[in-house]
Design brief:
Helix 5 (84-104) crosses helix 6. The chain has one domain: Urease accessory protein UreF (Orthogonal Bundle). By secondary structure, the chain is an all-alpha fold. The chain contains 10 helices and no strands.
């Protein structure tokens, strides 16, 4: 399968998209001492995978693979990402992925999406940029979902190792448990409908919004 090495490159934690600068709300839980160790972060990560990664990122990837217009999906993602910081994080990482993808994995589909972004007709969200590149490389939907979701889990866990802080072994234990959550999320995403798009836990969104006014922070979101 010729796409496998390309997929590893796209999901490598060294890919310079800026994922290391974002907590997607867990830093707010640290500030309120609701996340303080391996166990409490594991609970948050499991919820994040089952909520935002499933109903937002993962579902948008599935819809793109099923033929939805990328511009339409881009507008929907912008509308349902209520936290300004999370919305901006998605766009910043998406912009970098579009830039990298255009140089390393060029395709007509990717060129079309980047043109929509550069002309102001789309924002350029990270999961859509990833999906466009993956589909153009011939990556099957299930593998694309697994790779994208687990790459996000990996970057968040690495950030938690620094922020809480946790030991490196704790990070690896968390990733092993999160793999089961990702597998369950992929099965869940296959059953979701358009009406489910953007359905998230209010507590997660509130924490992401509060982060903008947090007194001291390590992360941009």
């Amino acid at each position: 399968m010729t796409y496998q090495l390309a997929l590893q490159q796209l999901c490598d934690s060294a890919l310079p998209t800026g994922a290391f600068a974002h907590s997607f709300g867990f830093e707010g839980y640290i500030e309120r001492e609701l996340i303080c160790d391996e166990a409490s972060f594991g609970v948050w990560l499991s919820v994040f995978v089952s909520q935002q990664l499933s109903y937002s990122d993962g579902l948008s990837i599935r819809f793109l693979y099923e033929g939805w217009d990328v511009g339409e999906l881009d507008v929907l993602l912008s509308a349902q990402l209520l936290s300004r910081q999370v919305r901006e994080a998605s766009v910043k990482m998406g912009g970098r992925l579009l830039e990298i993808g255009t140089e390393v994995f060029p395709s007509a589909e990717l060129g079309l999406y980047r043109d929509l972004v550069t002309t102001g007709r789309a924002a350029g969200h990270q999961p859509l940029a990833f999906a466009v590149v993956a589909r153009s490389l011939g990556v099957p939907l299930t593998e694309a979902l697994a790779a994208c979701l687990f790459a996000t889990v990996t970057s968040l866990t690495q950030n938690a190792v620094r922020a809480i802080p946790l030991g490196q072994n704790a990070g690896q234990r968390l990733l092993r448990k999160a793999a089961d959550d990702v597998a369950a999320a992929i099965e869940r995403i296959a059953r979701l409908t358009p009406d489910d798009f953007g359905a998230l836990s209010p507590g997660l969104e509130i924490s992401q919004m509060r982060h903008e006014r947090q007194r001291a922070r390590m992360f941009m979101s």
